[in-house]
Amino acid sequence: MVVVKNPRISDRTLAILNGETSPAKGILESCSLLAQCNCSFAALPSNTSHYFFEEYQSQTGIYIFDIIGLTINHVKNIGVDAVGLLATTPTVQTKLFEKRFDEEGIRVVIPDAETQEKNVQAAIYGTSVPGGDHKQRLSDGLKAGNKALGLKRVSEAVEKLNSEQGVEVFILGCTEISIISGELTERHPGIQFVDPMRLLAAECVQFYEDVKSRINHMGTNALDPMPDLVQIKREAAVEYVARKYVASKS
Asked: Which segments of the chain does DSSP mark as H helices, in order?
């Protein structure tokens, strides 16, 4: 596994809300580094960044797992017709999840504006400063490591959507909220939480196992030339995409 930590990827929220620099540039820089390491697939653990998915995916040969698609497939398997969404305000406002869930006949329930700001966005980024912009917040959110307050705030949003709209399945549509997934499950035993980060990790493992199996089942004749493992991985990547994504849409 090759991990790229790129501090030059611009803020997704500012890009969406204020039209600032798209994070696609930084993501593509990271993809270039992965390509140099002979990687075929990549996992991008950021839900909000998937707003720019087509922009960066169209410019790289690295296949980036579609975390929104993984989440939709999982929810479909659960068999519910409505889910609650706990995500950043830009993710909610752009209807990143809603548009694609609508295609599957699944309704996405979001918090009202006040709850979204005070219980979800503030839990992630910190308490907003009166008259300030997105950058001007207190350092009391999950991004600053305050799990206790973040858990309290998100839990209140969960309780409200559950009691007022009967939501029993929630998508943890933000990397930071994923950090408290275990605590949320303990605090709300009657509610199911879908964690896209875990689904993404599981998909990576599945791909690894598929490629490993392909290599292990190759011919072992001593006269055969040494296999080109890099090429095998690339071929497996193409087949994996075709089997899991292209075929499912046809």
From this structure: 12-18, 24-36, 53-57, 67-78, 89-93, 96-102, 113-115, 122-125, 147-165, 175-178, 181-187, 196-216, 229-241, 247-249
- Which residues touch 227 (CB under 8 Å, ≥6 apart)? 215, 218
d(CA 161, CA 146): 23
Residue 85's nearest CA partner among 159, 168, 172, 197 is 172
d(CA 189, CA 196): 19
Rounded to two decimals, the pTM is: 0.83
Q: Are 83 and 194 in contact (CB under 8 A)?
A: yes
Tokens of 57: 């995916």
The helix/strand count (H/E) of the chain reads as 14, 6
Query: pLDDT (tens digit, 9 = 90+) per residue, 16-68?
Result: 888 889 999 999 999 999 999 988 889 999 888 999 999 999 999 888 999 99
C-alpha distances in Å from residue 108, one per residue of 31, 97, 161, 167, 224: 31, 8, 11, 10, 54
Q: Which of 138, 97, 123 is nearest to 179 (CA)?
A: 123
